[in-house]
Amino acid sequence: MAAELNDSSTAAPAGTLQSICYERGSLRLLDQTRLPLETVYLDIKDSTDGWNAIRDMVVRGAPAIAIAAALSLAVEIFNLAFSGKPEDAASFIFKKLEYLVSSRPTAVNLSDAAEKLRSLILKTAETADKADTIFQAYIDAAETMLVDDVAANEAIGFHGASHLRSHLENLQKISVLTHCNTGSLATAGYGTALGVIRALQTEGWLKKAFCTETRPFNQGSRLTAFELVHEQIPATLIADSAAAALMKAGRVNAVVVGADRIAANGDTANKIGTYSLALSAYHHGIRFYVAAPITSIDLSISSGEQIVIEERSEKELLHSDGGRGKQVAASGISVWNPAFDVTPARLITAIITEKGVIKKSSEDAFDIQGFIENAK
């Protein structure tokens, strides 16, 4: 059931858009498939609603996906009449988390959040004498994730803006190109790559933000442009295919994008089209940054070759409006529609995290594990 926009408890900073509205026992997600023309929230009652919202891209963006999944189960648990033992409660949570992870396999934040919650429940179950203890521990942890994500994003924005300013010090103001949506709509609030742009604007260092359409689902034109207008940030929308020409014209000083998964060597999976931007930036001598929380890093894989790339419905290319509108392609044509591509570490200037900026250890790779260990 849809509910019209109104204020609700959230961890998002005041004035920013809210993709996740949560109060204990209640979760509403902004239906991003209906932006920018309609602002409608969907009531999420349980993990099944959460799974569908993630799979249908009602909620999207790696950090937001993880938090929405965790909170959808928290709501289900809070409203659940359960009479089993502590071990039964733990088993119930484990099965639900496994189910939620299957909704979007490429975004590592989701599996990372699920594993952390699973570890917490395992530890709690060692001493719990009733199921309520297990469930309360889960709810508390899921709620903490919501708050921590905003703090992490604000730190990413600070580190990114400071780094760009210090490395582009010959410029009075900086113009930044971004891809897909990495703002408040993709996180619990503030944003990652868009958070860097927001921080540059706050400090008076931003000349202009450029955002791509991000075909075929148009997260850039529908969502990023919507956020930039809402925040009154000077911005211009371009077609995906115009990025190289924009760079050649000297109108971009840096590219900042998000990440759905970062391998141990720095290879990065992000929305399809990111790789093309990185190649263009490299050719034109423009700095290319990835901005993402530590939870987007997957140290279990050595390179991007091990990242599983999700493929989306052929309808997104055959029909307008991301697959929801009229047919625009010839009937009978085959379609290849990968949701993500992998940008090799050699094309990435640096990786911006809440712990600081990860710089290259060699021309082709980052020592991400070493950075994380030293940042603790």
Describe the protein.
- This protein has 376 residues and is an alpha/beta fold.
- The protein has helices at 47-55, 62-78, 86-101, 108-125, 131-167, 193-202, 219-230, 243-248, 274-283, 315-318, 320-323, 368-375, and strands at 2-4, 20-23, 26-30, 40-44, 174-178, 206-212, 235-238, 254-257, 261-263, 268-271, 287-291, 297-298, 340-343, 350-353, 356-359.
- The strands form three sheets. Strands 7-6-5-8-11-14-15 form a seven-stranded mixed beta sheet, sandwiched between helices. Strands 1-4-3-2 form a four-stranded antiparallel beta sheet, covered by helices on one side.
- The radius of gyration is 20 Å and the shape is globular.
- Residues 1-8 have low confidence and may be disordered.
Rg computed from alpha carbons, rounded to a whole number of angstroms: 20 Å
Share of helix among residues? 40-55%
The secondary structure category is alpha/beta
Main sheet properties: 7 strands, mixed
Order of helices and strands: EEEEHHHHHEHEHEHEEEHEEHHEEEH
> Total number of β-strand segments?
15
Regions with little confidence, pLDDT below 50 for 5+ residues: 1-8
Spatial arrangement of strands, main beta sheet: 7-6-5-8-11-14-15
Shape: globular
Sheet-strand content, in percent, reads 15-25%
How many alpha or pi helices?
Answer: 12
Mean pLDDT: 92
Oligomer: single chain
